[in-house]
From TrEMBL, chains A, B:
Pfam families, per database record: OsmC
InterPro entries in alphabetical order: KH_dom-like_a/b, OsmC/Ohr_fam, OsmC/Ohr_hydroprdx_reductase, OsmC/Ohrsf
UniProt source species: Saccharospirillum salsuginis
Entry-linked Gene3D superfamilies: 3.30.300.20
SUPFAM superfamilies cross-referenced by the UniProt entry: OsmC-like
Membrane-spanning residues: none
Name of the protein: Osmotically inducible protein C
Length: 188, 188
């Protein structure tokens, strides 16, 4: 007998917790203000390493993580590195894939849609003349990013299309990319 | 006797390779067109996993990586997860930190500036009412991101400030964040 079957979850999300979270934010919108953080240490050349752990949210400093997450940026030989890690523009695709996926899964759960499988493929074009300052006309960041999602769920194609449009409009990473977000860089 | 001392490197970058790369791109700008990629598989709830390996650039499909990079997105308990990994908006900070750092190191090398140490701390604010569709006025992505850089190099403060402004203007991830970049989401 599977006792898990009695827990109210959908798409792996706890529906009771989800409802409680939404109610708490409706009662006190200040709880929705989050600050996320990373610190990064240059190693050499195109290699550097980030440490991620604490954040502020739901009115308090989070202490749920018992150890740091660490991630290494590197570059391939054609970009003067030794593949010490994926490179920063690739990590951005990972962040975007994850955010669009989680936003889709979350709003599907809220709509009563059960997702059976979901995968994405992302590709983005960059003209490196921008980075290297060889051409003032070249766009420096991604020119565009394409996400192809393979999704199987217990709803109609129309409901899926509506869900995907909604997820795109409500994904924090997607909206950090497709809208202008100010970045301030200052010396310590 | 340190034979490494005879190699023309600066900030860990091979200056001969750097010059050859720039010359090659000046002769054939088409070589500067890169396509980066990621594929991602939903696991459950807020957990999903990306695979990164191949990319197109310098006129060819890269084959320098002998194995995949894999990264797991997760969420903390307050966001209905179990800390299976850092979350997507935190991975975006890692990407941004790495890109601004590498762009700084690269253009410092081109300017003859030796960097002794470089680290950054990033923080960004998000109002989760946007993600949860609780408030149409709430910005969905980061409201802003702040980077504080601790950098020690063999140049004046004025040269450092100029270098940092230049790096910010030429970092691909920074410009994907601070400028609007179109994201297309379609079903397979």
């Amino acid at each position: 007998m599977n006792t898990q079957a009695h827990l109210p979850t959908r798409n792996g999300l706890d529906l009771v917790m989800m409802t409680k979270t939404v109610e708490a934010l409706q009662n006190d919108p200040a709880l929705a203000q989050f600050e996320f953080r990373a610190s990064n240490q240059w190693v050499n050349g195109g290699e550097n390493r980030s440490t991620i752990r604490g954040f502020f949210g739901a009115g308090t400093e989070d202490d749920s993580r018992t150890e740091d997450f660490t991630f290494t940026n590197g570059e391939p030989p054609v970009l003067l590195g030794n593949n010490e890690g994926a490179n920063p523009v690739e990590f951005l695709l990972h962040a975007l894939a994850g955010c669009v996926t989680t936003t889709t899964v979350l709003h599907a759960a809220a709509r009563g849609i059960n997702i059976r499988k979901l995968s994405t493929r992302l590709s983005g074009n960059i003209n490196l003349e921008g980075l290297l300052a060889l051409n003032d006309e070249a766009q420096v960041g991604y020119e565009s990013i394409r996400i192809v999602m393979d999704i199987d769920a217990d709803c109609s194609d129309e409901e899926l299309d509506d869900l995907l449009n909604f997820a795109k409009d409500h994904s924090p990473v997607c909206n950090t990319v497709c809208r202008p977000v100010p970045v301030m860089l200052e010396r310590a």
